[in-house]
Amino acid sequence: MDGANLIGITSKRQFLSATDLIVERHAEVETPAIGLKRTSIEGTPAEEEELKNAYANLRRQLSARRIERQAGRAVAHWHEDQQAAEVLRKDGKFESFGYSKQGKLYLEYYEALFLLELNRLQLEYCEMIVSVEQAYVLLLGEAASEKFNNYLVYSTLSRAGYIVVKHQANTTTSTSTAAVVTSEHCIWALLDEALGHKPVPAHIKASSLYKATKERWSEVKQQIMSHQTTTLEDDNSLDFKFETRKRKAQSQPQEQSKRICRDKPTKSLVNHLKAEPSFKKFQEIFEKLDIIQLQLTDDDSEMNKELRHFKISFDLHLHNEGFRRSAPKSPTFSVVILPTDEPFPTHDELLQCWRQQLSHAVPLLVISVSESKQIQAFLYYIS
């Protein structure tokens, strides 16, 4: 390219004014509403027209000017071996993003891609700046995997206002967990072993209370089976005293009192409570809920089947609860993401997944992602 052409190109370059910068920075392109699913044969003129409009709308979104402040973005470098992005320069608040390792801040692949889409992160790889399109292939991979579903759920919940963090599996040693094990934990573990044929966890067996609780359990069980009680050592030692004085006669006959009681309207305590305004309001709200009771597996053939294992992917926190990564509280929900075309878990499988939370048992939010990338979420409360 000669000098004349270079001067001509430079002279044609235009700079935006302050007003144009403000307008272009907050420009939004509306996407057309999605209509009903088409059932006609492919290749029809109506389908070609719809695809043409969709491509034009997509081209309009991509060609829109994006004015952002480059200094307002953090800088991170993607490590392929660690599958994490090392933050080289922070900008803004990173309270709910990333994890620390050897004094450095790292971002998970879904966190880095989410911040990249929000234009809060500049991702670099091999000393090159990665675009959003390249980041999808680099961070999620070209082959089909669960990473895309995890990111789709993470992005949707984060945009909805939740604080989404990676679920911390309880992998503490027996010495550290034995200190928080109480007698109630030992009793429930023994009940699960006796009634549900489930083994006692190792951290409960290592507790000093487990042996004493098991011995007391055997004593109580033997007393119940032999119909012996330890509360009454000697029945003869009890001194029953009965009142020997005569009672006064009633002022009016018994038949008249019965007649008076019949004349009065009888209204129980339950009926009184049902007449309260709070009960009526609760009844109106309760009728709107879609409650489905899960059935237990009574059939022996169903009980003998191997239960599927569902892992907990994320923990959800609310913004108004004062979330702190250094000292996190119990999450509001625990998220379980089902693979595509995977049937919903049964009662026993949900109970098994719920018991993975040894430190805090919170409701499970089971999310299913369809082939069309639509999300369906169901909340399960287990008591």
UniProtKB/TrEMBL annotation:
The tRNA-splicing endonuclease subunit Sen54 N-terminal domain, residue ranges: 61-124
What are the GO BP annotations of this UniProt entry? Answer: tRNA-type intron splice site recognition and cleavage
Q: Which InterPro entries match?
A: tRNA_splic_suSen54, tRNA_splic_suSen54_N
One Pfam entry for this protein is: tRNA_int_end_N2
Per UniProt, the keywords (alphabetical) are: tRNA processing
Q: Where are the transmembrane segments?
A: none
- Region of interest called Disordered, as start-end residue ranges on this chain: 244-263
Output the Gene Ontology cellular-component terms.
tRNA-intron endonuclease complex
Q: So what family is this one in?
A: Belongs to the SEN54 family.
Protein name, UniProt field = GH15259
Encoding gene (name): Dgri\GH15259
